[in-house]
Amino acid sequence: MKSTASRSLDTAAYTVSSFSEEHHISRSYLYRLWSEGRGPRRTKLGRRTLISGEAAAEWRRRMETETSQQDNGTR
What we know:
alpha+beta; 3-stranded antiparallel β-sheet; Multidrug-efflux Transporter Regulator, Chain: A, Domain 2; 75 residues; 4 helices
């Protein structure tokens, strides 16, 4: 089984639903992250919202950095 990071590089683009499922977060939490300016980069194609595999990997790195800074008491 591939890790989430490996699968993201193989995935050209996620829909909101597939991104949420793959990253084990709810759709509402993903929309909240976007409203806070903390969600992954996204592209609108007509009515569809897509997240590239590259944007997903970048977002995971950013979230890991945020978490480690919070664990260390810095921001």
